[in-house]
Amino acid sequence: MRTLVKFAFLFTVGILISCGGKEEKKEEGLKIGQKPKVEQKEDEPVSDEIPASQRITLDNKGVGKIKNLELPATIDDAMVERGAAIFKTNCTACHKIGKRFIGPSPSGIMERRSPEWIMNMILDPQLMVAEDRCAKDLLIEFNGAAMANQNMTEAQARDILEYFRTLK
Amino acid sequence: MKTYKIHILSIIGVLALLTSCGNNNGKNSSNGALNSSAAEKMYVAPGEQDDYYAFMSGGYSGNLTVYGLPSGRMFKEIPVFSQFPTSGYGYSEETKPMLNTSHGFVPWDDSHHPDISQTNGELDGRWIFINGNNTPRIARISLSTFETEEIIEVPNSAGNHSSSFITENTEYVVAGTRFSVPIPQRDMAISDYKENFKGSLSFISVDPEHGHMDIKFQLLMPGFNYDLSHPGRGKSHGWFFFTTYNTEEAHTLQEVNSSQNDKDFIAAVNWKKIEEYVNNGGGTKMPANYAHNIYDESTHMATTTMKKEVLTVDPLKVPGAVYFLPTPKSPHGCDVDPSGEYIIGNGKLSADLTVHSFDNMIAAIEAEKFDGEAYGIPILKFEDVLAGTVKSGGLGPLHTEFDGKGNAYTTFFISSEVVKWKLGTWEVVDRKPTYYSVGHIMIPGGNSRKPFGGYAVALNKITKDRYLPVGPEMEHSAQIYDISGEKMELIYDFPTHGEPHYAAGCPAELLAPKAKKIYRLDENKHPYAINNPGEAKVVREGNNVHIYMSTIRSHFTPDNIEGIKVGDKVYFHVTNHEQDFDVPHGFAMIGQNTSELLIMPGQTKTSVWEPKQVGVWPFYCTDFCSALHQEMQGYVRVSPANSNIELSWSLGD
Fold first, then answer.
1. Do B341 and B255 fall into the same domain?
2. Cβ proximity of B454 and B444 under 8 Å
3. Are B628 and A145 in contact (CB < 8 Å)?
4. What's the CA gap between B275 and B221, in Å, rounded?
5. CB distance A19–B17 less than 8 Å?
6. A149: which chain B residues are within 8 Å (Cβ-Cβ)?
7. Closest chain B residue to A101, measured at CA
8. A52-165 adopts what CATH topology?
9. What value of ipTM does the predicted structure carry?
10. Of A2, A93, A145, the CB nearest to B557
11. What angle do CA B209, B210, B215 make, to 5 degrees?
12. In a domain? residue B47
């Protein structure tokens, strides 16, 4: 029993020593009854009536390393060919053309999403789901099936995007 | 006593709190007077990473475990010589060949001495090698995938113990026999051991690019026991040193009969001389039968080749290639200091360490100062080669490692301690107890030309009261000593898996940046891989049914299969289409007479199922892969052997 008391004493001392100075400072700003701070997000909430898969969010570039992407007027056939092959290997387990599957169909995606958003979603889906409202809503709409990061290079993602331009 | 323990606990608690509340990242914290605390030295804060990798042999687990230093956290168990149901190693069709030997499929071994590949005598972090002691084998493990890539069986060997040690440019991995045997094996009286049995020392070349191993030659030595070995380095590069015992050539009651001679030998082998002899056509080809198993990273598949011949060398045919250095009391450990000058033989029944000098040895050889011969091999005079004796006062010295600052650290099994002493002056600087009965010791890079120092890990044989009791068998304990100061400081105890004998360590930055994260799908050359789910199919070839299947979070393609019959042999070839780090999928089928598969991103693995009962049987993913992991399952319909149901497969239709 004595030993237990000693242990408790030392433990308490430990807490006192370890959290000394800083703890006091923190307490200065802490008042009982204060309302918790709520972070205000600028882009929320978008109307939830339209399912995310049908929403048009062309102004949203998403979150990630692609900040601005101008598409040339003409479609590059070589890129399309490469993109179609990469898509087949890496994406068709969940995305089917013209058909809702594990994830949404990419058909007509260029009319709903910006090129930057598409690229960012391919390159870092985890970040997008954490920080982009549309990506988050898509995750919920599609049953919580998180999109896999297929470790695409920027060039590969760009090829896929070019392929998407051919899907109506 | 109890009070004392609780005090220590409290202090550790306090220290943990001290480090946790600061405005620092834990590891680099400084708290004035408590700066030297043991807890702080081994503490790696959550989210922080260790400074060193440590690879511990698994002993009778047959595997190799990977730890971090100084935290003592275990990161991985790498299956090497033993079947490993956790990943399917040795169970999957691709990895079964890794365990083939001339004795058939051997699903287990006793792994002892890991050694990291070297360039110019410094660790280069390409591969780690380890020996299988029981059914003599040497394995090579990739240090980018941390998987076993190759296993070669060693013929004419038994108790493959003075293995696997690497020459300074990884020219050879060396495997010496502990037990001498008839070579070639034959039916003969055991009592005819003397003069008839031989001890083989195998020099296995390592391809500098791929690491592929090939037995270059086997030196057939007198029938002693070759216990441990280490390569020369620096000026002694080109030589290899082996401790021997049982120079009495006893074949029974060796506990007594092998300890009669006051001195046994360290065999000094000039392998460069033998290599030259062999390259000029020397040596005798002998019929043999041994397995060579190679795992191909691009096909994700192992293949076995049975080799039928080995090149043997009679040491008497190569003058100047082998000498014996008398060494007291059945020497066990055989260690060479970073400069290559000192060869340390630890007489395990002695209190003292014997240190031989390489320069003295060369001088004695050149002066031809011999003290007789054993089976034609010249014996040098003990006094001529001796550099010094470390009078430590300990008992049962076993192994020595180095810190690169002129100090050596020797373990003492019987007196349970580590003794630090100075090279050249042989003066004992410090000694610290171990808990208990220490075998090997490991300092990162401590058996190379460039030790990294920092920590020494004592690998103990007996645990007793160090941890909470868990029945008669305890995991072996290891202890970490901070060796940065003049005195060693015991900073942490941690349990290890199996029975670690030797270990090898290196700085984290040597391996971490090149550790593989995924296998690229577009580099997968497995014959049953599918590139995309559209290629999923089921093919019948008689009673064999091949299912080409893919997985991604969180479904199998296909997940409904019909047309399988009782009596079929069903091969599930599963390709993981993930390309993201640390997203394996598992595969397990109800009633399968094998283990699960754990399939890494981009990898293909195959599991066999022979259904014996009619019904609809589920399979599922065993690795919690996503929020929808519980949904990741499928069904196989098994019909009677005479049914006419056509093969069909689908997903979501």
1. yes
2. yes
3. yes
4. 16
5. yes
6. 579-580
7. B652
8. Cytochrome Bc1 Complex; Chain D, domain 2 (1.10.760)
9. 0.77
10. A93
11. 105
12. no
Residue B636 lies in a domain: yes
State whether residue A146 sits within 8 Å of chain B by CB.
Answer: yes
Q: How many domains does chain B have?
A: 3
The CB density around residue A3, as the number of other CB atoms within 10 Å, is 15
Q: B550 to chain A: which residues are within 8 Å by CB?
A: 93
Flag whether pLDDT at B178 surpasses 50: yes
**Residue A110 to residues A99, A107, A114, Cα–Cα distance (Å):** 16, 8, 7
State residue A90 phi and psi, 5-degree precision.
Answer: -100, -15
Nearest CA in chain B to A153: B579
For residues B32 and B75, membership in a common domain is answered with no
B370 and B222 part of one domain = yes
Q: Please tell me whether residues B224 and B251 are part of one structural domain.
A: yes
Contact (Cβ atoms closer than 8 angstroms) between residue B132 and residue B64: no
| Nearest-neighbour CA in chain B from A135: distance (Å) | 16
Phi, psi angles (nearest 5°) of residue A17: -65, -45
Distance CA A156, CA A161 (A): 9
Q: Are B490 and B508 in contact (CB under 8 A)?
A: no
Cis, bond preceding B157 (omega within 30 deg of 0): no
Distance separating alpha carbons of residues B289 and B283, to the nearest angstrom: 18
The verdict on B429 and B396 lying in the same domain is: yes
Identify whether residues B509 and B436 lie together within a single domain: yes
Query: Domain containing B11: what range?
Result: 2-42
Give per-residue burial for B471-500: e unless 16+ CB within 10 Å, then b: eeebbbbbbbbbbeeeebbbbbbbebbbbb
Nearest-10 Cα torsion for B194, B216, B184, B267: 0
Across chain B, mean pLDDT equals 94
As given in the structure block, the two tokens for residue B633 are: 């399952």
- Nearest by CB to A148, from B10, B14, B578: name it: B578
Query: 3-class SS at B537?
Result: strand
Q: Does B650 touch chain A (CB under 8 A)?
A: no
CATH number at residue B634: 2.60.40.420
Give a yes or no: residue B367 inside a domain.
Answer: yes
* Same domain (yes/no): B224, B301: yes
- Decide if A2 touches B, using CB distance below 8 A: yes
- Please tell me if residue A112 touches chain B, with a CB cutoff of 8 Å: no
**Contact criterion met (CB < 8 Å) for A144 and B20:** no
Over range B403-423, report the average pLDDT: 97
Dist. CA B526–CA B93, nearest whole Å: 12
- pLDDT tens readout for residues B582-616: 999 999 999 999 999 999 999 999 999 999 999 99
In a domain, residue B427? The reply is yes
Which residues 6+ apart lie within 8 Å of B642 measured at CB? none
User: Rounded to whole angstroms, how far apart are CA atoms B160 and B227?
Assistant: 9
Mean pLDDT of B61-87: 98
Task: Catalogue the E-assigned strands of B473-614.
Answer: 477-482, 489-495, 503-507, 537-541, 544-552, 555-557, 560-565, 569-576, 585-589, 597-599, 604-609
Structure-block tokens of residue B202: 């195998």
The verdict on a CB contact (< 8 Å) between B583 and A148 is yes
Non-local (6+) Cβ contacts of B583 within 8 A are A148, B553, B576, B601, B625
Residue B230 has pLDDT above 70, yes or no: yes
Q: Rounded CA gap, B128 and B117, in Å?
A: 6
Determine whether the interchain pair A88/B23 forms a contact, defined as Cβ–Cβ distance below 8 Å. Answer: no
pTM, rounded to two decimals = 0.88
B504 and B610 inside one domain? no
Cα–Cα distance, B627 to B586 (Å, whole number): 15
> Are the beta carbons of B432 and B476 closer than 8 angstroms?
no
